[in-house]
């Protein structure tokens, strides 16, 4: 049987994704007395781009479950000397029980998954960041209850994190109102644009109106053309999440950002460091959500 990969939020059935987030919340509440269900198992982590949270959350999560992690940076592997992704995948996947990969190109993960006997997890590509959004939805439910029927506003760049949010809207039954400069919407979202639950608003204030959660991310992601940076900062300036914009949302709305953040660009310091911000819970929940995912993919859940 082919390995169950997690390259996209689409790779788990919506009902299973909802259960997985509930499992993660239950395990977080229970604390660390869940035994060591992944004792003897190992996770390879292949980071072709920088990371703080993703790497630490996977390593710490594996340790808490009793397993081990093998962290690989590109220079430390034979990929740097031209070994193919396919041969690398056959070798690593024969020894490890799952492989989490961060790369610019989504195709590298598809190539790896096509040749790896072990499941492959998307630790961020330019297309999606599904592990992030598992943690984000978990954070909303933990702090504000059911997300079904609620309105979430995405303000800013329609990037990898946004695309995973678009898929989450259908799985969890909420509305994702997106406000992004139209030129970037056409450039970046492709067939995700018409997913169930996704709505488009020209004005950030219209997207934010009565939202239970406002989310944003950097305006220039890893892998975006360096030369486009200045243009992007100019084009996205009206899409900053300010206190004024937060005031359009529900009074109990939360502010989310996957981090790292640029204060004074996509978000005002008073918002990300203010009372409505839940970014540190979001960061911690990366570990809890991924523990549930690892149990699922390694066949040790429930
Ligand atoms: N949010 C996130 O993926 O952070 P890192 O880039 O630090 O892993
Ligand atoms: N959109 C950002 C997310 C970083 C975690 C990037 O891809 O750089």
Automatic annotation (TrEMBL):
EC number: 2.1.3.3
Lineage: superkingdom: Bacteria
GO biological process: citrulline biosynthetic process; L-arginine biosynthetic process via ornithine
Keyword Transferase on entry: yes
Domain Aspartate/ornithine carbamoyltransferase carbamoyl-P binding as annotated: residue spans: 5-142
Record keyword Transmembrane present: no
Keywords attached to this entry: Transferase
Boundaries of every Aspartate/ornithine carbamoyltransferase Asp/Orn-binding domain copy: 149-295
InterPro entries: Asp/Orn_carbamoyltranf_P-bd, Asp/Orn_carbamoylTrfase, Asp/Orn_carbamoylTrfase_sf, Asp_carbamoyltransf_Asp/Orn-bd, Orn/put_carbamltrans
Catalytic activity: carbamoyl phosphate + L-ornithine = L-citrulline + phosphate + H(+)
GO molecular function ontology, one term from the record: amino acid binding
Pfam families: OTCace, OTCace_N
Protein family membership: Belongs to the aspartate/ornithine carbamoyltransferase superfamily. OTCase family.
Protein name: Ornithine carbamoyltransferase
Species name: Candidatus Amphirhobacter heronislandensis
């Amino acid at each position: 049987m082919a390995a169950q990969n997690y390259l996209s939020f689409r790779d788990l059935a919506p009902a299973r994704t909802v259960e997985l987030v509930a499992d993660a919340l239950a395990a977080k509440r229970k604390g660390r007395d869940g035994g060591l269900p992944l004792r003897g198992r190992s996770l390879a982590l292949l980071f072709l781009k920088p990371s703080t949270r993703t790497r630490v959350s996977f390593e710490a999560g594996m340790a808490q479950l009793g397993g081990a992690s093998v962290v690989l940076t590109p220079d430390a592997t034979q990929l740097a000397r031209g070994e193919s992704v396919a041969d690398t995948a056959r070798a690593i996947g024969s020894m490890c029980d799952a492989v989490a990969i961060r790369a610019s190109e989504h195709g590298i993960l598809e190539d790896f998954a096509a040749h790896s006997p072990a499941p492959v997890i998307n630790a961020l590509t330019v297309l999606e960041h599904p592990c992030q959004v598992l943690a984000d939805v978990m954070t909303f439910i933990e702090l504000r209850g059911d997300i079904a029927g609620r309105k979430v506003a995405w303000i800013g760049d329609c990037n990898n994190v946004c695309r995973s949010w678009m898929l989450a809207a259908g799985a969890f039954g909420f509305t994702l109102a997106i406000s992004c400069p139209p030129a970037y919407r056409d450039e970046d979202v492709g067939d995700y644009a018409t997913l169930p639950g996704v709505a488009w608003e020209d004005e950030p204030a219209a997207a934010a109106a009565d939202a239970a959660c406002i989310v944003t991310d950097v305006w220039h992601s890893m892998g975006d053309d360096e030369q486009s940076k200045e243009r992007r900062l100019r084009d996205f300036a009206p899409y900053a999440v300010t206190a004024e914009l937060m005031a359009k949302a529900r009074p109990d709305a939360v502010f989310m950002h996957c981090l790292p953040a640029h204060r004074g660009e996509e978000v005002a310091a008073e918002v990300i460091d203010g009372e409505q911000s839940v970014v540190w819970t979001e960061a911690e929940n990366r570990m809890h959500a991924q523990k549930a995912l690892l149990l699922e993919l390694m066949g040790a859940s429930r």
